[in-house]
Amino acid sequence: xxxxxxxxxxxxxxxxxxxxxxxxxxxxxxxxxxxxxxxxxxxxxxxxxxxxxxxxxxxxxxxxxxxxxxxxxxxxxxxxxxxxxxxxxxxxxxxxxxxxxxxxxxxxxxxxxxxxxxxxxxxxxxxxxxxxxxxxxxxxxxxxxxxxxxxxxxxxxxxxxxxxxxxxxxxxxxxxxxxxxxxxxxxxxxxxxxxxxxxxxxxxx
Length: 205
Fold this sequence. Notes:
The protein is 42% helix and 16% strand. It is of the alpha/beta class.
């Protein structure tokens, strides 16, 4: 369970009643994240944690609806056109309150405004930050729209270096994360620590 992999520092709150905030850009019907992230939220909720899932999804997939039934709070902020990086003025204004009310902030995917803003709010509020690239650092995916990802990639690397935990779903993904950060190893040493990478496969069931 990822909740047990994060650092202590939740104000004396036990792992089984932590307040966990999950953030991702979208929950597209048929997408892998639309199934795996709500399933993770539901699992944490069943273990007694207080779980909130925030995205810019206009329509909730079945897994998110099932998570709601189990008690997960699901919040959808309005996206702001033209949706290039999933920007949202509403999220910009309101997410800070959600972060401050949480013990752990778990951000999924890369290269989007919800990821950047969620991480920044967590760092500013000194909350435990977990980042799950969710396959975005696969070398094959990095080649798609490569110039755009190079333009914003520095921001994702900056945040990854400062996360308390980086969650990989398999050993291959751990290697992708290490490869992306490898050339910045001197900067990691400068800041006194690198991200802790843990491998936890997606649950099945």
